[in-house]
Automatic annotation (TrEMBL):
Residues 10-314 form the Luciferase-like domain. Pfam families: Bac_luciferase. SUPFAM superfamilies: Bacterial luciferase-like. Coiled coil: none annotated. This is LLM class flavin-dependent oxidoreductase. The lineage of its organism: Bacteria, Bacillati, Bacillota, Bacilli, Bacillales. InterPro entries: Bact_Lucif_Oxidored (IPR050766), Luciferase-like_dom (IPR011251), Luciferase-like_sf (IPR036661). It comes from Niallia oryzisoli. The keyword Oxidoreductase applies. PANTHER family: BLR5498 PROTEIN, LUCIFERASE-LIKE MONOOXYGENASE. The keyword Oxidoreductase applies. It comes from the Bacteria. Keywords: Monooxygenase, Oxidoreductase.
Length: 352
């Protein structure tokens, strides 16, 4: 992708940097190797012409990244064009001032490619780690998001709230290259989250990891209604979709190769929450069916599913999580290559 080209429909990849054993070999990579592979994946995505690369935040030993801004800054120097976003920043337990200044710094380093995708996170280990109570789960996120948006708009800010010390004509430095850093809210499935994203007038990134995507149509409608009622233009109300993706030459091959890694991923993720169990092959076949949101198949199958969702949501961004379950890096590379060369051009052509 030549610098300066803007695709109407953006396609990218993201990682949560989970460190899981390969179910076929039993091998578990080190955090150092995982980090190196993430940077290499970002370089490949950039060279292949994809639009966005995202890195998530966790505070656990079975995840390699606790500071997306630091990792994305390293990636910034190894790439040229690709946008760099958190996926997600756990805003409930982050100081919004520190978060904004970190990403404004990233924006300068990357020549204007930084974005923030804020969410509440799937785990709660960051609450005791940073001295917050889970009783304030929703209130923390709302207050921190309000402050983050004001920080994005103002070089100097006076502000007071419930959970952090007040700001009195505070200088917010550095400032990003452009007027503001693009901000998104990650939404997992609750109407309240969709309403919040709409009222704030930021992008909404839907995490659609399985099931029938039609169940998210209501959230899109709620988001747009809340946004327009709050005075935001339809153009400002951008929608993205994120999902698990595995691509092979044929759909059957993709299912055969991905099944061990998919059940492995959900087994260790759910075990962390106290109820891990293995997904049967029959369950997996249903989860990967043509009408579902699990993107496992041939390039044509992936294209069809993305376009079906575009018919539903009218979204302008799709991010693929392509490295879950202890998947070896050579297979992650293949996923990115097929996404960039076989999937992305067909989707963009169809939507144009």
């Amino acid at each position: 992708m030549n610098q300066g080209i803007i695709n109407e429909f953006e396609i990218g990849v993201y990682t949560l940097a989970d460190i899981g054993p390969d179910p076929l070999t039993g091998n578990t990579v080190s955090a150092k190797q995982r980090m190196e592979e993430i940077i290499k994946a970002a370089q490949l995505a950039d060279k292949s012409g994809l639009d966005v690369f995202g890195v998530g935040e966790h505070h656990r030993l079975d995840y390699a990244v606790s500071s997306p801004a630091v990792v994305l800054a390293a990636i910034a120097y190894a790439t040229k064009n690709i946008k760099l976003t958190s996926t997600t920043s756990v805003l409930s337990t982050l100081d919004p001032v520190r978060l904004f200044e970190d990403f404004a710094t990233l924006d300068l380093i990357s020549n204007g490619r930084a974005e923030i995708l804020a969410g509440r996170g799937a785990f709660i280990e960051s609450f005791p780690l940073f001295g917050y109570s889970t009783k304030d789960y929703d209130d923390l996120f709302t207050e921190h998001m309000d402050l983050l948006i004001q920080l994005n708009k103002n070089e100097k800010l006076t502000w007071s709230g419930k959970f952090r010390p007040p700001l009195n004509n505070a200088e917010i430095s550095p400032r990003p290259i452009h007027d503001q850093i693009p901000i998104w809210i990650g939404v997992g499935g609750t109407p309240e989250s969709a309403v919040r994203a709409g009222r704030f007038g930021v992008g909404m990134a839907l995490a659609i990891l399985g099931g029938n995507p039609r169940r998210f149509k209501q959230l899109v409608d709620i988001y747009r209604q809340a946004g327009t009622e709050a005075g935001h233009s339809i153009e400002a109300l951008k929608i993205g979709v994120t999902g698990h993706v595995f691509i092979a030459e044929t759909t059957q091959q993709a299912k055969d190769e991905f099944y061990p890694y998919y059940w492995n991923y959900w087994y260790y993720v759910n075990r962390q929450r106290g109820f891990g169990r293995k997904i049967s092959r029959e369950e997996f076949e249903q989860m990967a069916g043509p009408e579902t949101a699990l993107f496992v198949g041939s390039p044509e199958q992936i294209v069809d599913k993305v376009l079906q969702q575009h018919e539903l949501f009218g979204h302008t961004r799709f991010l693929a999580q392509v490295d879950i379950g202890g998947l070896p890096f050579n297979r992650v590379v293949k996923n990115i290559e097929l996404l960039a060369s076989e999937v992305a051009p067909k989707i963009r052509k169809a939507i144009r």
